[in-house]
Amino acid sequence: MRVVFILVLIGVGIVRGVATAGSDAPVPFRLDPAESRVWFDADARLHSFRGETQQLTGHFTLQPGPPPQLADATVIIDAASLDTGHPERNSDMRQDFLEVGRFPTIEFRVLELLTPRPAGNAASWDLVLQGKLTVHGITRDVKVPTTVSLAAERVTARGQIHLDMRDYNIRVPRLLLIPMKSEVLVGFEVVAHPIR
């Protein structure tokens, strides 16, 4: 489930694909938590639910030029802040499955931006964020399809990916003795602004 947060982190890295017009110098960006969120959708068979958070931080450096380059891109999610809208379920998720006391954060580090291509206009790009996602103390290679849009003083990234809890050594929860699906859909919409 914290995988969702990590995805959010990846989205921030994607922003790098958006070029900053009129400058060849690297531009540092910082994620804006107030305008960003990471979520996951889980299927418990008898019913589905969503968890989400805005408690995330992140930064990256954008190097303009054809094509733009990204450096030092990292997103960190506060695992204990994931909220499903149900206090008892939140407690179980945080303590028994995510074990936030031992693993307080979900982290995504973008290593490379793959196959960037224009997405309808010069200010939007479709690309794949390739990087390392760490959830529950386990680090895996991931590729996250993302769309990045650039506006004045603002980069927006949206994407989603399916993650299997078992890949991160997270026990699959049960509801009335029926296990929920181990795969969750993690999505994000993140906004970053230049650091002045």
Write structural notes for this entry.
12% of the residues lie in helices and 53% in strands. It has 196 residues and is mostly beta strands. The chain has a single domain, classed as Lipocalin. An 8-stranded antiparallel barrel has the order 1-4-5-6-7-8-9-12. A two-stranded antiparallel sheet has the order 10-11. Strand 8 and strand 9 (154-164) form a beta hairpin. The longest helix is centred in the N-terminal third of the chain and has 12 residues, at 3-14. The chain is elongated and about 55 Å long.
Distance between the termini: 34 Å
- The number of helical segments is 2
Instruction: Please state the average pLDDT score.
Output: 84
Q: How is the main sheet built?
A: 8 strands, antiparallel, barrel
Instruction: Please write the string of helix (H) and strand (E) elements.
Output: HEEEEEHEEEEEEE
Strand order of the largest sheet: 1-4-5-6-7-8-9-12
**In the residues, how many domains can be counted?**
1
User: β content, as a range?
Assistant: over 45%
State the shape: elongated
Quick overview of this protein structure:
This protein is mostly beta strands and 196 residues long.
Topology:
Blueprint: H1 3-14, E1 27-31, E2 37-43, E3 48-53, E4 56-63, E5 69-78, H2 87-97, E6 105-118, E7 124-135, E8 138-151, E9 154-164, E10 174-175, E11 178-179, E12 183-194
